[in-house]
């Protein structure tokens, strides 16, 4: 009986180890097919235009101001973690403000 329990526990552990672990936090690399890529590392953000900016940070949300030389400079950008692999990003204010869906970027394959 103990052998069956140990075998089942080992199998469960192997399955858990094979699934990529993502912390329940907004930090990480995010991709949108049409808009590019952005990175969030605490208060440091790399925008889709490649600019490094500081923003407000909460474990499940982040905010920054669009820098000059990017579309809609000076606009506030709010990002909220929806689940481990999805954030919603809203660039506001503006009549054309809409929710953008960003997904966690896939790990590069070497």
Percent of residues in β-strands: 35-45%
Overall shape = globular
- Using only C-alpha atoms, the radius of gyration works out to 18 Å
The overall strand count is 9
| Total domain units | 1
Give the biggest beta sheet: 9 strands, antiparallel
Low-confidence stretches: 2-22
SSE order in H/E notation?
A: HEEEEEEEEE
Strand-pairing-aware structural class:
alpha+beta
- State the helicity in percent bands: 10-25%
- The chain-level mean pLDDT equals 82
Would you give an account of this structure?
The structure is a single chain. With 110 residues, this protein is α+β, with helices and mostly antiparallel strands. The chain has one domain. Helices cover 15% and strands 42% of the residues. The protein has a nine-stranded antiparallel beta sheet, with no helix packed on it. The longest helix has 17 residues. The protein starts with a helix and ends in a 6-residue tail after the last strand. 12% of the residues are buried. The N terminus is likely disordered.
